[in-house]
Design goal:
The chain has 401 residues and is α/β, with parallel strands linked by helices. Helices cover 33% and strands 16% of the residues. An 8-stranded mixed beta sheet has the order 3-2-1-4-5-6-7-8, sandwiched between helices. Helix 5 packs parallel to helix 6. The chain is elongated, with a radius of gyration of 23 Å. Bound molecules: zinc ion. Zinc ion (ZN) binds next to helix 9.
Length: 401
Amino acid sequence: MTIRDLIASAALADISLSHEEIKRYSRHLIMPEVGMTGQKRLKAASVLLIGAGGLGSPLAMYLAAAGVGRLGLVDYDTVDYSNLQRQIIHGTKDVGRLKLESAKERILDINPHVQVDTYAVPLTSANALELFAPYDIIIDGTDNFPTRYLTNDACVLLGKPNVYGSIFRFEGQASVFDAKEGPCYRCLFPEPPPPGLVPSCAEGGVLGVLPGTVGAIQATEAIKLILGVGEPLIGRLLLYDATTMSFDEVRLRKNPNCPICGENPTITELIDYEQFCGMPAHDHSEYGSGQTNGVPAITPVDLQRRLAAGDYLVILDVREPHEWEISNLADLGAVLIPKGQILEHLGELDTAKEIVVHCKMGGRSADVIRELQQHGYKKLLNLEGGINRWAREVDARLPVY
Ligand code: ZN
């Protein structure tokens, strides 16, 4: 059964629109592609959004405004100042609140007819199937690989369409993975990239308006699936480049050997996605301590203690020069060598001393430590949580970015 059949088979006869709703949706109702039947389909439909952040903001607002009857939101993060540049469902007054609370308030202000279900939990292999089951469409609005593979696999196992979007700096991607009719995310990317190769938006940044564009594309695809009109992005990967303002498209084919949607699937239940991807499943800029697993680490408070005790430690900053301008540990004698140039500057490192490597949040510095370890360096420590955690826990004079 496709999503189209699912919603068509819903008892639309039991669904009616009040005079207020008819007025509210009048610009839809006069379109032949929507009309009364389409609007009732929207009202009968349910969509689960993973993440109430950059992509989740336009998704939730447009789907609510369009009259999707039931919206589920999964997110356990709180609103931070660093979210406001793009997460337009939240406002300055919401900083410190649960994102679910401010999102729900905004959604109900846009459209009080929407049923909003909130789940303030991390999405995991233990709860994904249960969370997804009541919804017609799942939309992944997160920014990390473990959640992306988990969402894909749970959707394939449940036979639900997964409206995919991803964003980074000036570039976006979107597709609809519906394994009954086309490829899934694993058909496209059977394996996750090595940890640290693809920076997250929290590490690499994202143009604030970009999730607006990509989230609006995802919302459009979800609405098309519900209405059963047009050609969905099934089997196509849309590539968007904001610098040239160009859209490109790659045809995707279903991989007959796909481990989950292929002819002989080897994955028949949800697995441990953090282990599979070798990285943690969170992308919260404020609290992500980065991928420190497997490398020796030191907390900011412990580093401060050791410096105060007179231990001589080299502090190596592996961020980019434009990040150094935002905040730096120059007072502590930090040396800046960006991650990509580290191998050319190996000779400058004092191997007799312990080296504390730091970046913004701890991810890039962990990569540099692994790289240095391969070159025989031993006395290396990763500053957990990076300079942002140092700013929060040790030196409030530094800004958090
Ligand atoms: Zn597949």
